[in-house]
Amino acid sequence: MRLSQKEFDFIANGKYKKKPAKKLELVSGETKTIRSKNIQLEKRNQKDFAEYIQYQPGFDCIRHDVKGVWIGHKYIPNHYPGAGFPDLEVFYKGRVFFIEVKLRGEKQKPKQIEFEERCKRNKIPYKICYDLNDVIVVINWIRSSF
Question: Where does 41-66+80-145 sit in CATH, by number?
């Protein structure tokens, strides 16, 4: 498969750098160690993947950010009823597809698994993508299948 310059730039831009873990104080007063690199890297991947999909002819993409929020140095986890909704909602030729963005080695949370199972029951495509190559495979699959 030959990559366009834009696809090559997405893959070769070297954005994927590790950051050290840090302790976070939650609003509840609880302290947790969270690898900020994971949060920041996953968000960056979500943005990059959504932008890549937007550049594909006939595709539209909405990025959903359902994580918690930072207020000062405190992290407030998001527990609203939409938790588990996939990161990317992709539209192509009147159909909807869902993409969950994960870093290699990360697992889905229980609500994400539940959402995926709902999609499977209703025959709605749901894919997990770990890197841009996975996204390219999904986009090519969508193009050839629909």
Answer: 3.40.1350.10
